[in-house]
Amino acid sequence: MFTMTCPTMQTERDLAQLVGIDWGTTHLRAYRIAAGGQVLERRESSAGILTIRNQDFVSALQPLIADWYAHTRPGPTLPMLLCGMVGSRQGWCEVPYRSCPSRISDLASALTAVDSPWGKALFVAGLSTEDKHRRYDVMRGEETQIFGCELSGQRAIIVTPGTHSKWCISKDSTIEHFRTYLTGEMFALLRSHSSIGWLMPDEDRTIQNEASFLDGVRESRREPNLLHSLFSVRSGALFDQRAAEAHSAYLSGLLIGSEVHDALRRYRASMVSVVATASLGRLYEAAILAAGGTAVRRIDAELAVCRGLWNLWETHLKQAKP
Amino acid sequence: MFTMTCPTMQTERDLAQLVGIDWGTTHLRAYRIAAGGQVLERRESSAGILTIRNQDFVSALQPLIADWYAHTRPGPTLPMLLCGMVGSRQGWCEVPYRSCPSRISDLASALTAVDSPWGKALFVAGLSTEDKHRRYDVMRGEETQIFGCELSGQRAIIVTPGTHSKWCISKDSTIEHFRTYLTGEMFALLRSHSSIGWLMPDEDRTIQNEASFLDGVRESRREPNLLHSLFSVRSGALFDQRAAEAHSAYLSGLLIGSEVHDALRRYRASMVSVVATASLGRLYEAAILAAGGTAVRRIDAELAVCRGLWNLWETHLKQAKP
């Protein structure tokens, strides 16, 4: 468990207005949040929902948040809002997907409450979208990040890169449509289990070689069929076209390039907001600019989720008033 | 070890003119071959080259072929010709790639000899091809299958589906160009290790649902970006759009469809020769016809490799004559 305690904790405890939980398949993060989405304290554990046995979500959460409730003054307890796969069929409480287009007020009015030792725990719904051929797409967790991105009235393109990257169109504070790419999962699969992963030294786990990364991004434009382009990792190794330490960066460029070229073309986007950690955000920024994007706005993924949880809570409160 | 003994073995032993070995990373197959490439006897083991320790290829081959040499009449021994990854850097003897375009006579004159307990063992070279952007592609083993396909003078498109499918252009008995797709490996990866593989029941290992397979082939045309289309396996499951037993067939359709659409478009092909086992050949035939191909010629992969080994040997003999 990682704890970041603010020096002025005693004072700030009283400022806390919300406990926000971002709970995915492989991570659990808890935030003590003040008005406006300001993060007072952040804690995390590796108890992703895949690790939870017998539906015992309470025991996994207990060590992270119990003391945040110990000093709560009498009266209404600190509200708790949860987003991510914890609201899926495999999670604590299944909240049905809401279909796009979806406004923040739609999600705020659809929070699902479950009793917990800390009062009502409120779950945010995921979103679904459907195309004209009846192909569905889904997200859980990213909708909260997106609603933390200060959506303006204008059409905006927002990407939340990761295991399953989501590219979203928003307009007038509404998520209109989105599109998932399996990019992060595919990288991990190929890295760990494939014949091209075998070529990569163990220490080559991070993407440090920007030239090879960009070489992959360019190749993904020339050669959009991934089943073919992936083989160039192997043939490039056979013909000594790049250093062994660079295969991983080139592979990452092929995959992120495939995603970025396709999304920029489909969404006819030039300005893109990237909601990510610093390292992944840097890669996406480089790929988007290399693929013809003209401007990238970088947004920290954790700050976005906290602001999104706050915005949802505030909207919910306003709806509750007569 | 699987042995298929012909009833008239005693007579036919004298007909044998060549021992052909197709030795890949995961399989080892040995054939006793008569004039014209006719297979007199076939044996196989699971001693693919990845299983060989200390370069001891002889011990792995011994149980399959030793008795074929026991009765060899005095004089020249039965020649032995080997193709596949056994001729790679990880194999018994590294034979450099020859670059395309390549005629059968080029390969027949480049056989590499290594001493063995059964006389000289001759290795067939692999092929490489290079595009104008200096991207290489390689094959080892498939070139022998292709030279077993009775290439006419006309331009022909031949596919050898599998872990790494190869699409080849041949003309005037020359392999002009080819293109690899990681299709079979990708299917196995996604089936065994990915979040979409988890959706598939264990018994769903073979592709039996042709309607779902063709649904995947059609979807791969509508949605050429694989990183996105693969997610429709998952969203289709969430929205109960297909039976659990059909996910695997749909995934196979997405992948084979991606390969086939791309190759037919690039090679502007309508008639395609498919060199495969019966079950894989049937899938490729269905996918090619659904993707706009007008005719498919099916060729058994093992017969092709034996005819190819024979054709290479016969060409080699002719070259040796003054």
From TrEMBL, chains A, B:
A GO biological-process term:
D-galactonate catabolic process
A GO MF annotation of the entry reads:
2-dehydro-3-deoxygalactonokinase activity
Arranged from A to Z, the UniProt key words for this protein are:
Kinase, Transferase
Glycosyltransferase as a keyword of this entry, yes or no, is no
Q: Which domain of life is it from?
A: Bacteria
Which InterPro entries does the record cross-reference, listed alphabetically? DGOK, DGOK_C, DGOK_N
Q: Know the name of this protein?
A: 2-dehydro-3-deoxygalactonokinase
Could you tell me which species this protein originates from? Solimonas terrae
